Amino acid sequence: MSQPEAHKFMERAIELAKQGWGETAPNPLVGAVIVERGKIVAEGWHRSDGGPHAEREALTDLGRKTARNATLYVTLEPCSTAGRTGSCCEAIIAAKIKNVVIGALDPNPDHAGAAIPILEAAGISVSTGILESECLDLNLIFNHWIATGQPLIAGKTAVTIDGQIATRSGESKWITNEKSREDVHRWRRLFPAIAVGAMTVLDDNPRLTARMEGAEEWCPIRFVFDGLLRTVVDRNMPNVYTDEFRDKTIVVTTPHGGLGYVRKLRELGITVWVIPSDTQRVAFADFRQKCAEHKISGVYVEGGARLIGNLLRSRELDYLFNYRAPILFADEKGKNGFTGLRTEKLADAVQLSEVKHESFGDDQLMRGHVQYPDRVQVDETIFSRT
User: Fold this and answer.
1) Phi/psi at 267 (nearest 5 deg)?
2) What interhelical angle do 54-62 and 3-17 show, nearest 10?
């Protein structure tokens, strides 16, 4: 097996895995192909939670005994325990597959690599780490959830070259192009929850659903962070409190919001999480824990800038999607996309790791895991204003 061949077949397995986009949670995206004599003869992917795993789908697609020296390419290590659908290792052994090529190992430390000795004991040759980075990237949410037991909290910003999200007058639609916005909806479809701050709801009245061409509109859990319940004061209640998906809306507030407003929301069918706090700001560590208790494995935070800044200050932002358009304001009174830190030295800067770059027309996306310095110095003047 040459490296170009291995990459070609794993790339196809990755393409197949993405066909389960948004359908498999809380399970991972997984794709598999069976190769005989240098050609793909069967394909499979994990289609939905509780359904057959990708390896079994590929074996079903083959519909016959495997040829001599057949190779299975799979993006994620085959499961070695029975679970709901049976052990994939057992199915691979029973099918007399001779070679297994694995993209990424199981992210669960208790299971990582467990399939390898089982397969090798049955006389199967096992290779690992083929397009590992790409295979891991398929399951950002799942990997974080399995490894930590906590949700992946990801922020999304759409900025100009100079990092601004609105002009001095507040105009922001649209900084990024249509292709970038389509990609945002694609990620909305993957994450089980979306979150915005109170000002985003008041200024933009967003719907916070995933709307993709050729697919039915889909609504994740919709979090609104509103420590003082300012979004409930207006007579014209926001979309997220009145539309057909309002049962998917959860308002996250503090005891400072007022019991009357909490009661009003609940009468509308809105779930309210009142998280203890000495200030009007929600304690994000407590929010994260509550998400874990409700088995919400990922939250896609779409802003605004104050909400993203608060997450950075509290070191609770795990991942960042930063869309950048070829637009320049060069105006110190424009609205900055990131605020709240006081970074005096480069060594104190927040950085991204495992960075991915994509282009959408003239726009660019940079995304990666957030890495915090040993200390994060907070801009107290901004703290006093929020």
Assistant:
1) -65, -25
2) 100
Nearby residues of 257 by Cβ (< 8 Å), 6 or more positions away: 226, 227, 228, 229, 274
Q: What is the pLDDT of residue 225?
A: 95
Residues with Cβ within 8 Å of residue 14, at least 6 apart in sequence? 31, 75, 103, 131, 134, 135, 138
Instruction: Give the active site residues.
Output: 55
Spatial distance between the Cα atoms of 246 and 249, rounded to a whole number of angstroms = 5
What are the tens digits of pLDDT across the range 333-364? 888 888 878 888 898 899 999 999 999 999 99
For the stretch 96-112, pLDDT in tens is: 999 999 999 999 888 89
Phi-psi region of 114 (alpha: psi -120 to 50; beta: other; left: phi over 0): alpha
Q: Is 255 a residue whose pLDDT tops 70?
A: yes
For residue 58, give the nearest of 104, 12, 8 by alpha carbon: 12
CA distance 158 to 181: 9
- 352 by DSSP, 3-state: which? strand
- pTM higher than 0.70, yes or no? yes
H or E stretch at 241: helix 239-242
Euclidean distance between CA atoms 219 and 358, whole angstroms: 25
Residue 288 and residue 154 in contact, taking contact as beta carbons nearer than 8 Å: no
Residue count of the chain: 386
CA 141 to CA 220: how far, in whole Å? 15
Q: Which two tokens stand for residue 23?
A: 């359908």
CA distance 56 to 76: 13
- At residue 50, the pLDDT reads 85
Sheet with 125-128, strands from edge to edge, namely: 39-45, 31-36, 71-76, 99-104, 125-128
**What backbone torsions phi and psi does residue 247 show, to the nearest 5 degrees?**
-70, -10
- Tell me whether residue 260 is exposed, middle or buried, using C-beta atoms within 10 angstroms of its C-beta: 0 to 12, 13 to 18, 19 or more: exposed
Which residue is listed with tokens 């100009």? Answer: 160
